[in-house]
Amino acid sequence: RTVYVNGRYVPENEASVSVFDRGFLFADGIYEVTAVLNGRLVDFEGHVARLHRSLNELNMHLSLNDNALRDIHRQLIDKNGLQEGLVYLQVTRGVADRDFAYPDAQTPATLVAFTQQKAIIDSPLAERGLKVISLPDMRWGRRDIKTVQLLYPSMAKMEAKKRGADDAWLVDSGLVTEGSSSNAWIVDHDNTLITRELSRSLLHGITRRTIMQLAQQHDMKVEERGFTIKEAQNAREAFMTSATSLVYPVVSIDQRPIGEGQPGEIARALRRLYIETSL
Ligand code: PDD
After folding, report:
1. Whose CA is nearest to atom 5 of ligand 1?
2. Can you cite a GO biological process for this protein (predicted)?
């Protein structure tokens, strides 16, 4: 693969970042993941807008404009002949002696980007649906910032696998915040879609927003509010959304089947709609 590091396109085995990089020492960095379908970026404007929001919240500065960012994505797709998969982009506060205080604002950010191939449209997981377990949400209080601090979500995912499930939904004060790396949704018995309202407690998913718009365009009702695991277990359907999964139906939560224990009709329809509008 050809990857991007601080202005250069290099073979992956020649790419390097300093051991003093704050991303490495403090997880002082943010990222975005944009899906690629048919060689084209999906919802790119949304991902760049959220990147700026994360940068602002952490007082980080990036000297590249949006056209330059888009160009990096396009070049990586071209150089690697990527048809389907993702582009990962990471920005850290750069290289400085180890100190809890931020370095001088003049310190250049580190910018890294690479592609990863992945079958997104023809996904066996989407066909079969996911088994989910619930776990306490033990992440920090600014989950709206897309930082590279991903250890707890990794642990949650591993715990799910250890218990024979696919992923975890995280619960804070009795209500589901989101999945380990996705937003969580249920469909009630009136076919209303329910997903938690935006706050500092969860990531403001780009796929979440697009799915919400698509649902409303197709006369589905959407309610933004929190829900319990019990309500989700008794729902008609459950599903999750993210850039790399698009829409994944959820078929059980803590071993309780949702509906018939099969991927739901609405989740499948939204997945089809999202793919159609992105191609
Ligand atoms: N994760 N919530 C969390 C905690 C996430 O990590 C993600 C995405 C989402 C969905 O956001 P979006 O629809 O913008 O992808 C929600 C990415 C895909 C990842 O870390 O790989």
Report:
1. 181
2. amino acid biosynthetic process
